[in-house]
Design goal:
Two copies of one chain form a homodimer.
Chain A: E1 8-21, E2 24-30, E3 38-40, H1 48-60, E4 67-74, H2 76-82, E5 86-94, E6 106-110, H3 126-141, H4 146-160, H5 172-181, H6 186-191, H7 210-224, H8 241-252, H9 258-267, E7 271-277, E8 287-291, H10 295-298
Parallel strand pairs in A: 1-5
Antiparallel strand pairs in A: 1-2, 1-3, 2-6, 4-5, 7-8
Helix pairs in contact in A: 3-4, 5-7
The first copy, chain A, binds a DNA duplex through helix 9.
DNA sequence: TCAAAAGTGTTATCCTTACACCCATGT
DNA sequence: ACATGGGTGTAAGGATAACACTTTTGA
C-alpha cells in the first residue's frame, strides 16, 4: 500500500510487572523508580508475548507467569528525542518477588506510591478530601456556562466517587487523565514545558507516559480479577484464605467482607485444601489451600449474562 | 537503551468495522472480500485512535462511532515481503451501513461467511456435527498417550461445546486457532506453503492474519455487549425492542429469550420510549425506543462483583 | 381466521448481602 | 482474660430462568 522506508517507526516494549508481597501491591521499576522496564522490540520470536517474556526473564531473572497485552500508543517523548515516530507496546505481567535474588537492575515499588488516591483499604484517602476534591470543585466552576459547570461536576463526581456517587476502583485511568487535565500531576507541567503551579502534586511522577501505562495496567487488573482467576498467579503455591483476600484487597484498593469473600471462593471451587495448617500467625491457625489448576481449563466457560432462548 | 536506527519497524493500522444491517452482522472488506481495510500508520495525530478515525473516514466516507484498540501483533507475511519487521495495530470500530453511498472502494460482507460455525441463531450449524466434530475426534486420538488424548479431547470439547459442554460464544479466537492447528482452515496450508489436504475447508479465508483479527474482534465484541451498552452504536436513532434483540442475536450468534431480554433492557433503564410506533412490520405495531444517552455517563459505574466490606 | 409479533403475569430458584455468633490459638 | 483471626449459620432481597397467556395488527 505504500513504499517501505517512509512509515517505519521505532517500537518499544514496556512492561508493568506486578507482584503482591506481604499484602502490598508492587511493580518493578528501574533503580530511580521513575521508569518502567522497557526495551527495544527486536523480535526474533513468533509472537510479541514470547519476545517480551524472553526479554524480561533475561533482564530481571524473574520467571514470568501470566502476560497480557495492554495497549499500543504513540510515544511523543521518544518521537521528539529520536526524530522518528515512536510507539510503545505495553504489557501487563504477573509474578512474585523472589526473596533470594536482587531485582536485577531494577527495584520493586509500592504502586500506591504513584497513585496514593487509589488506596481505599483503610477508608477514603485523606488527600482526596483535602486536595483533590476542592480542586475539582474549583475546576467545575471555572467555566461560564451553567450547563458546562454541571457537566464538569458530574464527570468529576462520578470519576472520583464524590457527591453521593460510589467509588469505582476500575476508573484508575480516567482519574489520572482528569488530574492530568487539571494540572494536578507533575507530568502535565512537564509536557507543557512549564514549571509546576504548586509545589506538592500528589503521587510520585514517572518518565514518559509510564504513569499512564501503570494506570492502564491497574485498571485492567482490577477489572480482570473479578471475572478471571488471575490472582493465583500472584500467590505462593500454598496460602491461607486471608492471604488470598489481602492480595485481592491490595489490587482492588478496597477492603472486602471476610465471610462473603470466603463463600465466593469456595462456591466457585477455585481452591482446595492441602490438609496442612499455617504456622506462625497470630490468632487461630488457618487451613492452607492451593489453587485448583484445572479450573483454568474448566473456566474457559465464562457464564453468559445473556438471556438465552430455550436451552 | 539502544541505538536508534536498528529496531525500526513497519507499522500498519488494520480496522474491523462492524455494522448490523437487517439483522445481519457485517464487516467492511476490500472489494475482493479477502482483506480488512488497512493503511500505513502515518500519524500526524496525537493518538492512534484519532489517526485511525481520520483514515477510515477519509477512505470510506463512513462516520465512525465507537472505536477500541484490539491488539498489536507481528505480521509475518508483510515482514517477509518487505524484508523489515512489520507489526499491525488492529482496531474494532462500530458503525452503520449507509443506504445512500457506496462503501468507498470496499464492500460489506456477512461475518458468518468467514465463520459459518459461529452462527447458532437457528441451532447448531450443520457443519459442526458433519465436518468439525469428526475431525476433532480424529485429532484427539492421533496421539499415543491416553492422557494426552484426554487432554486434547477436553480442549476440543470445551472449545466447541461438544460432549455435554456448553457452547460459549466468546471463544471465537480459540476455535479459529484450534482449527488452524488441525489444518482445517485454508490459512494453515497457505502459511505452511502446502496445497490443502482437502478441497473444502469451512469458511471464506482471508489474506495475511486478517481472519484471525476478525476472530479477535468478534470475541471482543461478543464479550463487550454483555457489560457495556455498545450495541446502540449499531442501531438507528429509533428502533423497536425486537430490532435491538435481533442485533444482539446477530453479534452473539445465538437466539435470545424474548421476554427476559426485554425485562433486562428495561430494568437497566437503557432505553426510553419515543412515543411513536413502528409502521410497516408484520404483526402488531411496536413501540419505538431510543437510547438514553446519559447512561453512557451514569454507567461509568460497572457494578462491583467483589464482596465489599461495610459500605 | 390465522400468523406474527407485542405485551403482561407468575413462579421457583439462585446469588448476593448483611448480620450474628462461636471456635482455636498465642500472649 | 483478651486480642486476633478462623469458621458456621441464616434470613432478606434482588436478579434470572422458565412458564403460560392475552392483545393487536396485516394478510
Amino acid at each position: 500500500m505504500n513504499d517501505s522506508g517512509l512509515h517505519s517507526v521505532q517500537a518499544d516494549l514496556v512492561a508493568v510487572l506486578v507482584a503482591v508481597t506481604a499484602g502490598q501491591p508492587r511493580i518493578l521499576t528501574t533503580q530511580t523508580g521513575r521508569k518502567l522496564p522497557a526495551g527495544p522490540f527486536s523480535a526474533h520470536h513468533r509472537s510479541l508475548q514470547a519476545s517480551l517474556r524472553a526479554w524480561v526473564e533475561a533482564h530481571t531473572h524473574h520467571p514470568l507467569g501470566y502476560v497480557e497485552q495492554l495497549y499500543t500508543f504513540p510515544d511523543g517523548d521518544r518521537s521528539q528525542q529520536l526524530g522518528v515516530r515512536a510507539i510503545s507496546i505495553s504489557y501487563l505481567g504477573l509474578t512474585r518477588e523472589r526473596e533470594d535474588a536482587q531485582a536485577g537492575g531494577g527495584m520493586w515499588q509500592d504502586w500506591y506510591r504513584y497513585f496514593p488516591w487509589e488506596d481505599w483499604r483503610s477508608g477514603a484517602p485523606a488527600l482526596l478530601a483535602a486536595t483533590i476534591d476542592p480542586q475539582l470543585r474549583h475546576w467545575s466552576q471555572a467555566v461560564p456556562d451553567m450547563q458546562a459547570q454541571q457537566a464538569r461536576w458530574q464527570r468529576a463526581a462520578m470519576t472520583f466517587g464524590l457527591d453521593g456517587c460510589e467509588w469505582n476502583e476500575e476508573l484508575v485511568l480516567q482519574r489520572y487523565e482528569l488530574l492530568y487535565e487539571l494540572g494536578l500531576v507533575a507530568e502535565a507541567w512537564r509536557d507543557a514545558a512549564q514549571p509546576p503551579d504548586r509545589s506538592l502534586l500528589p503521587g510520585q511522577d514517572m518518565a514518559h507516559d509510564h504513569r499512564r501505562i501503570l494506570a492502564t495496567a491497574m485498571a485492567r487488573l482490577r477489572a480482570k480479577i473479578k471475572y478471571r482467576p488471575v490472582v493465583f498467579e500472584l500467590m505462593p503455591p500454598e496460602f491461607t484464605l486471608l492471604q488470598l483476600q489481602q492480595t485481592v484487597e491490595a489490587l482492588a484498593g478496597r477492603g472486602l467482607h471476610k465471610q462473603n469473600f470466603r463463600r465466593l471462593i469456595e462456591q466457585q471451587a477455585l481452591v482446595e485444601e492441602t490438609g496442612q495448617m499455617a504456622v506462625g500467625t497470630a490468632g487461630r491457625p488457618a487451613k492452607l489451600f492451593r489453587f485448583r489448576s484445572n479450573v483454568l481449563l474448566e473456566r474457559a466457560i465464562a457464564g453468559s449474562k445473556l438471556p438465552l432462548a430455550r436451552s
